[in-house]
Amino acid sequence: MNNIKHLEDFKINVKFKLSALWTAVMFCYIYGDYFSLYVPTCIAGFISGETMLDSPIKLFAASMLMAIPALMIFLSLALKPQLSKWLNILFGTIYTAIMLLIAITSIAPWWTFYVFLAIVESCITLLIVWYAWKWPERNSTPETIT
Predict the structure, then answer these.
(1) H or E element at residue 55
(2) Each residue of 50-108: pLDDT tens digit?
(3) b/e per residue, 107-135, with b = 16+ CB within 10 A?
């Protein structure tokens, strides 16, 4: 008896894969920042103004850093394939390096969740680089209609 069901499947365009991966990265970033509010003394630091982002310039730099992955969700779908490929490789590599740096420097026990998310984010951004690098080429010969 063969009761295995064959479910319908279809090939997902690389643009959609990249967009979905950037979306997953953004969710991890947001959850990491949200969960950090539960770390003891974090809220007190916000109230007293003693945070890593304690100046307008640092806050603006952090905003720029987070704007890029958010924009890549849309740009991965909207840009021409060649430009999208290289931007995904570039930013995927940069954000992998950033998250690995965070993973190896966040060693306090309360920040274990942050290290975990940084590793997950690194894996996702490495997938972004992989999918962009392996972007399929279009057939150069048009199909003939007979």
Answers:
(1) none
(2) 888 888 999 999 999 999 999 999 999 999 999 999 999 999 999 999 999 999 998 78
(3) eeeebeebbebbebbbebbbbbbebbeeb
